[in-house]
Amino acid sequence: MSSRLHGCGVHTCYLASSNPRVRLLTCCCLCGGILVYIIGSVLTQRKPYNLDRLLHRGEYDVANEYKPPFKWTLHNALQQLVGRPRSIVIGDKVIAWSVVTYAIIYELGLCFVGVLIWNMILPWSSSQWSNYFLITSLWGTGILGIVSTVWFFLGGIIDIRKLFRDLAARIDDPLNNGMVGGHVSLVDQAAFEARKAEHPEEE
Fold it and tell me: I need a labelling partner for 52 at 20 to 30 A (CA). Which of 66, 71, 105, 150 fits?
């Protein structure tokens, strides 16, 4: 019997998952794990954890990288999907708009919605569907693969050159050695202590 079960492979796993007892046991294990996590967290929590310190927010934003929460509207939804113009260069804008155009306009709008509406009005024949999949699955994917290969090849060479230039100009910080103090890196700990020394009234 065991050899037959081993030979079934995926089919055996499917049969086991369809067993009500296995499903009940799986549910009990999941619920038990969640309860253990919650109970353990409640019993071992001595004081509320300082998430601002962990996430570098508020007074711990030593790099001044805080950004206000973005409010989605119909006016700025597409702009947010593509990228904010002030934060990316022209090359990144071209890439972002190309990806959005291909995914939303071509794939979703033309190849899916357009074809769906067309076939609701005038259904295609088998030969027309064959030509459709030939163009979208073979020709379109091939062209996209060639463009992506050239794009990644040239972009990889440019970025590798930038990487070596940045490494050559890098200033070594002895505190940036991976060690942790006060639940943060030694670099952040030194920055927090320096800020507290400059602004003792914030304590």
Answer: 71
pLDDT digits (tens, 9 = 90+) for 116-134: 999 999 999 999 999 999 9
DSSP 3-state assignment of 173? coil
> Do the beta carbons of residue 81 and residue 99 sit within 8 Å?
no
Distance CA(16)–CA(10), nearest Å, equals 10
Instruction: State the Cα–Cα distance between residues 158 and 87, nearest whole angstrom.
Output: 20
State the DSSP string of 169-191.
Answer: TPPP-TT-SS-EETTEEHHHHHH
Whole-angstrom CA distances from 100 to 74, 77, 145, 164 are 16, 12, 17, 31
In sequence order, the β-bridge partners of residue 40 are none
Give residue 196's pLDDT: 73
Interaxial angle between packed helices 20-44 and 10-17, expressed in degrees from 0 to 180 and rounded to the nearest 10: 70
Q: Is the dihedral of CA 162, 168, 173, 176 positive or negative?
A: positive
Q: How many helices (H) and strands (E) does the chain have?
A: 10, 2
CA distances from 196 to 65, 72, 165 (A): 18, 36, 35
Residues 6+ apart with CB under 8 A from 178: 185
Query: Cα–Cα distance between 157 and 162 in angstroms, integer?
Result: 9
Token pair recorded at residue 202: 């914030």
Q: What is the token pair recorded at 7? A: 């030979």
pTM for this one? Answer: 0.50
